[in-house]
Design a protein that fits this description.
The complex is a heterodimer of chains A (166) and B (558). Chain A is of the alpha+beta class and 166 residues long. Chain A has helices at residues 19-29, 58-70, 100-112, 133-143; strands at 5-14, 36-41, 47-56, 74-80, 85-96, 116-120, 124-131, 148-153, 157-160. In chain B, 39% of the residues lie in helices and 16% in strands. The relative contact order of chain B is 0.11. The chains are: A alpha+beta (166), B alpha/beta (558).
Chain lengths: 166, 558
Amino acid sequence: MTKQNKHTISILVENKTGVLQRIAGLFTRRDFNIDNITVGKTAEEHISRMTITTYGDGKTLEQIIKQLNKLIEVIKVREMKPDQTIRRQLALVKIHAPTEQDKSEIIQYTNIFRGKVADVTPKTITVEITGKPDKINALIDLLRPYGIKEMTKTGITAITRGQKTL
Amino acid sequence: MNGSEALLKKLKENGTDVVFGYPGGVLLPLYDSIYDCDIKHILVRHEQAAAHAADGYARASGKTGVCIATSGPGATNLVTGIATAQMDSSPVIALTGQVGTPIIGTDAFQEVDTIGITMPITKTNFQPRDSSDVPKIIDAAYHIASTGRQGVVVVDLPKDVLENEVTDEDMDAKLEIQGYKPNTNGNPRQITKAIQTILNCKKPIILAGGGVILADASKELVEFATKANIPVATSLMGKGSIPEDHELSLGLLGMHGLESTNNAVTDCDCLIAIGCRFSDRTTGKVSEFASDAVKIQIDIDPAEIGKNVDIDIPIVGNAKIILEKFIGEIDGVNHGDWTKQIVSKRWAYKPKYNFGCVPFKPQECIKEIMEAITPETIVTTDVGQNQMWMAHYFKTKNPRTFISSGGLGTMGYALPAAIGAQVAKPDEHVLAVAGDGGFQMVSQELATIKEYDLPIVTCILNNRYLGMVYQWQVLYYNNRISQTELAPTPDFVQLAKSYGIDAVSVEEIGKLKENIMEAFDQGEARVIEVKIDSSELLPMVPPGEKITKIVGEYKQEE
């Protein structure tokens, strides 16, 4: 069996229509997997940055990077080494909280995880949390017994530690 | 100047003086400008043929081919031709019409998402939304199509973009492409390592692919092979990179390759692959492909290195430049016994013909074809058994004279590709070899041949079957011949004559050769049908098997 490791890839692309489709299409056509993907503008208006997490062995990762590099709109591609990378995700969670006790417990848990309360109604409370995926999952596990009514997560975005840039 | 005029001016500036196309509603502004411009327009009878012709033009000449189709169905009809050219790295620009920008996305009449459809089958594609962008996008299209690993660029042109004003300033604007910088020179350390390996190995083989021809590196290939005394096997796309009557030439490798060549590659201790992407048709079972060899791969596209076969010494660069560096460092190596032994095995094989058989044996047809033409004659083939018989028995002498759909395997390719080749090389003889199946997919292009008075000779090897699929049904599906019998075929002679083209059905030995020579002498198009033996099968390697596991008889003799 080949090793299916998780990889985070950071890509600088020209900020143009259709670029996301090009990249997603490349993954589909070449039978690569996208675990999650985030896109946003960089400090430069005409350049966007994509963060893709994917599974695959070393050979697949090499092909993904090479094939991405072939796209005309791609300016730079890098694998983000796990120990030198800051990885963050955002989650918004709406929890069933009909009693004051529920609300107060949920707020306490959220504070421990440095999350924030984003909205409260008589029957629900909505919290936001950012952090590493496992931290977010840990909070969600604590909140689950109250009844999660709705939840949304962004993909992971990542940046290198220290002075190095892409 | 409007968008159309600016476009045509840019085509001209980039060296294009002929385009292959088919008009339509949204292209009215462009065709109005074509009416009085000095670019020659070849009107095909189906858009697919426009793409194949532009591709054939590019392969025969080395220049970028240009085809034009209207929006919607025009653009979708181009798709097969675009994918064919892209798979074989042929530099082609496809210009498609699009509905006006105000109605894009409304499912307007003849609207289709050409950018979305062609994204996975092109090197890149563009859709200018403003007339002022047309000139710089056309310049970029030529640059991208013809440099690095060559390929197809689609430019999708909305109607209003073709109509609106373009200024002189717009004509000089440059499109900045930050992410596109092909590496051509090769890493010096890897080159040194490769040279050391070549000097120290005992049983080297060169595998030359289409990249050698695309880089115009055939002369360098032959010089390097001669200086280093290394036999040269070719992939289908590499056919013609070395003259196949050269003493170091081993001919075709792979699924339909020569037994001696497949054995040689399996036994070698150093494989030098140049401009070859290790298609499954070339390698057979990858894990047993040249498994004892140190593998050196030279390719302009870094993504090809290690994609299908693990490589020990990768060199990213242009084949001509790298080979020149090799030639400078290597002189008079002697792999004596190995080279002599491998080469003599190939030359011991000579096709055995069943003379005088009626219906004809395909091998005999190929022999007559070879006797009828000169080394400069450009031969295009269709796909299937006709293509493999040609690949197998026909000896190509010059690069860019064997034109065939390798990667996509597109039936119907031969005739329109021959149109493109003949337009590119009006002074050379052009011969299209097709099967009855492929010919029937594009026979309407006989009208184009007639209209432009193109002296193309078409040879239809008629076996009344989809020969290659039939062959697999015989060999691997217990003789269950499902839907591959094409009888009744039309009367090809009458069909061609109805287009005003001279035609003949050949039944006597020698008549094929005679007809080809006569048509070439008269400088007139001719269709020659030869009814061949449909039971004749090729030797081949079963799919997914090691390339030495050949099934079927070679029909060769001393």
